[in-house]
Amino acid sequence: MSGSSTAGLVVVDAGVVIGHLERANPHHDASTHALAAAASVAERLALPVTAFAECLVYPAQAGSEATLRFEAALAAIPIGVLDADADVARTAAGLRAEYPSLKLPDAFVIATAIVHQADALLTTDRRWPTALVRALTPKVDII
I want to staple 14 with a disulfide (CB 3.0 to 4.6 A). Which of 4, 7, 51, 140 is the partner? Predict the structure, then answer.
């Protein structure tokens, strides 16, 4: 995380977790470094429940043993999972309405960070609208 000395909550997008856990992923080194940096300054790291579901797709395709291995690796980071509620859904809908190119799963990640008042948001997604990224609080670190 650039420029942070301490942070309460850092919300992490699925691409960062997937990049960290899959050595062959093109984001592996950057994701691993970013997670270590965030963990060193944050009180907690959290994955929105929608991003958690996204992370589980490939392990689920591989079977229950792969899913268990993934969840154990996730716990070792350590990172928690933040639920989505009506406030997150309303915020995601508002973001999607204002930025039509923003995909709904991405809007849920951003909305989770906003509603939970995160200090930072880590993502590998460079497709988010630039105007949105610049205007956001929390600060977005694209790795």
Answer: 51
- pTM over cut 0.85: yes
3-state SS class at 6: coil
Check pLDDT > 90 for residue 133: yes
DSSP 35-62: HHHHHHHEEEEEEEHHHHHHHHHHHHHH
Q: Which DSSP string do the residues of 56-102 spell out, in sequence order? A: HHHHHHH-HHHHHHHHHHHHTTT-EEEPP-HHHHHHHHHHHHH-TTS
3-state class percentages of the chain: helix first, strand second, coil last, to nearest 5: 55, 15, 30
The amino acid at residue 6 is: T
* Distance separating alpha carbons of residues 67 and 80, to the nearest angstrom: 16
Stated length of the chain: 143
Peptide bond just before 26 cis, omega within 30 deg: no
Binned at pLDDT 50, 70 and 90, residue 7 comes out as: confident
